[in-house]
Amino acid sequence: MWRKYAILAVSALVLASAPLEVAGQGGCASVIARRDIKSLSGAERNEFFEGVRRLQEEPRPNRYDRFAYIHLQATFEAHHNAKFLPWHRQLTYQFELALIDATRNPNFRVPYWDWSKDSQAPAQSIIFSDSWFGGNGRPGDSCITTGRFASWKPMYREGSEPECLSRQFNSGDSISPFSTTDDIARLLEISSFVDFSKEFEDVAHAQVHNNIGAGFMKMASPNDPLFWVHHSFVDKVWAHWQSRGDRMLAYNGANSDGSPARPEDPLHMLGGTVGSVMDFRRLCYTYDDLGSARMSRRSTGDGGLGGLLGLGNGGGGKHGDGAQAAAKGIKSRVVTLAEDELLPSADDHAELFQLRDIKPLSEEYIRKCGGNVTRTREYEAKTREFHRQINKMPDYISPSALINRKDLLQRLTAERSTFTATRGRKRCVLETPGGAASPSVLDSLIKTATLSLSLSVDLLLGGGSRQGGLTSLVPLVGQKGADYIKAAYAS
């Protein structure tokens, strides 16, 4: 059912009602890569933050306000129908053009946040740090008080939203898991555009909005600058899907009114048509891991564990002798479970090897933009079963697993002292020195977990070729899916 939203600052309606000007499509001087925001230098990342700030500081209602207004007004045109991906591609592209103007840098491109890497402990991501986007909202009104945009006061809001940038993590001070790198690889194997788009929108994309909560799960969510790095990654996943075989122009399904989706369909309130945005290269951008756009990456600390563990370029084999791996200050014991435990709770923050369960999306969020609750629950069940299949594989550990995300794990060791590492019916329970977050403690924790369960370093990020585990992945995600995961290990 269509819903009318209470929109504030109605004096701006004349300004906000016209479609955004479509500029630059099809006339590129060069195609430039959008990059992972974590790979940017401090100066490059600051250029993004300052560009957003300049848009926000224009006279109100300004260009930044207008993006939130358009997304709010286009709720049903832009969600849960075939236009979801092309409409948001055009929106993100138009925002990119505004930032190019604000930064006076024609080579500027909107960075992306690969939340699949942060999926098992999202709240620990550097994304939510005080010097980046800020974290959870405060009790009561959910207004954020940290980050580069804590003082931003949105003009257009949905219903009774507070006059602030708001977030309310869905698990207290934590955020429930997002979709993993493995989930993305599985989605990329779906051959039909409409089937891919529906499942991607309904679960992987929606989890980020729903689980961060408050203003971020509202239809005025572009108020939060986090929206843009989220949707840049959403677009990146679609670009990867398009780049497989003859899919660049693949498009089918139905519009919000039930009519057959066609490339000539207009993009509501944005200008342009679906067909005008299908080939992202005509919009003068690509992504840093697509073909010739691949580039060296400057890590901010979310990379592999090879250097941490001193694995170098070595291949297979077990970790060194027990005396070296017996971690000073780490206590461990191995217990035998009554049966295989293949799916840790979504609220589990201790398991190092396995992928977690996901929390169901709230029905409020699903229905807000015209979603189908039954279909979403079916997709969620499919995701849970896929995680079980991944977790039962004896020769594979996901690149999204906590033991492969040293940046998240290091922050977790500052907050908790007990961790588990589970393979089949064997579980290693590990105790670390309370509040210890040093690299040496993290090194010891990982070494003890892997040694205790006699695992090969080939299962860890940076630990070798992993050909065995990747081969056994093919029945689940296809050869190209396995290749996508292999690239995640190398990034």
UniProtKB/TrEMBL annotation:
GO terms for molecular function: metal ion binding; oxidoreductase activity. Keywords: Copper, Metal-binding, Signal. InterPro entries: Di-copper_centre_dom_sf, Tyrosinase/Hemocyanin, Tyrosinase_Cu-bd. The keyword Signal applies. Residues 1-24 form the signal peptide. Gene3D superfamilies: Di-copper center containing domain from catechol oxidase. It comes from the Eukaryota. Residues 79-96, 224-235 form the Tyrosinase copper-binding domain. This is Tyrosinase copper-binding domain-containing protein. It comes from Syncephalis pseudoplumigaleata.
